[in-house]
Amino acid sequence: MKRIIFFFLLIVCTIKLSAQSEEWKEYCQLQLKAQSAFKKGDYQKAAKSYSQMDSVYGKIVDYADMRNYCIAAANIGDTSLVRKTLMTITGYKCFDLAFFNNPIFNAYKEKDWWTICDSLSHIYGHKNQFYIDTLRRMQYRDSIIRYQFVHAVDNTVRDSARLIMRATDSVNTIILTKLISEQGLPTWKNLGYEGFHRAYIVMMHINQQLQDSLIEQFIPLMDEGLIPRDKMAYLIDRQLILQRHPQRYRCQVYRGGKYQPIEDIENLNARRESMWLRPVDIEKTKANIVEYE
């Protein structure tokens, strides 16, 4: 209980709670347009929407969006935009050399500014490949057994899958504990974007004691840009749900699209903005809240 109180105090001190900004609403609408256009290969439209996002909010908060913006710029052959986005992206704590070495950027390697990007890439781009590869195997096992559990043909198969799932979570907890002890915390700086995503999936299902410890250590790192805020919100809400406290960000969906209790729901979207999460319909959310059984 003391640890939960500590978390709440720390989060309240860290996050500026105010009314949700109109800029954030517009940013999220543009984000949907940009991501849709990028997925369809309409790089001109994607680059335009990403540029508007940057202008409206003063920055692009998520590395994946910034990376797509950079790729879109290269695909439309906008040299000045490639330079601008590459310079920006090399400063992200999760930047990795695999992105920088993408053949799409070969056409720009003769430019005079490329050497600056190249130098920055070697300062920021090296990640712990052993750590990433180990997490990839852990996440694969985690996802496979959960898929088998969800799609079990009958209760007998589901019960067997549940036992294997619990064993997998226990093994992953042991391995992750050892990795952290020997290789450091699973941050963007250590793992890059893809590596952290794999770690995040594993962390959702590990032993609660280790999960609590990691969240406690991650909160101060969030403001340093070492932990993505949106993934942090999911981890915090999962922890609160497991301990039967109201969730803070409405990240955890219950059966049938319902939501277990949410604290201070009137200010939910302000909190979601502080964690890079899109706004939600407050009234619809209220109508779908269920109490703990």
Short description:
The chain is mainly alpha-helical and 293 residues long. The chain contains 14 helices and no strands. Helix 3 crosses helix 4 (63-75).
CATH classification, class level of the domain at 20-124: Mainly Alpha
Average of per-residue pLDDT values: 91
Low-confidence runs (pLDDT<50, min 5 residues)? 12-17
- Assign the CATH topology of the domain at 20-124: Serine Threonine Protein Phosphatase 5, Tetratricopeptide repeat
Largest sheet: none
Can you tell me the CATH architecture of the domain at 20-124? Alpha Horseshoe
Radius of gyration: 21 Å
Total DSSP E strands = 0
The sequence of SSEs as H and E is HHHHHHHHHHHHHH
How would you classify the helix and strand content by structural class? mainly alpha
Distance between the termini: 20 Å
Q: Helix fraction?
A: 55-70%
Shape annotation: globular
Strand content: under 5%
Contiguous helical run count: 14
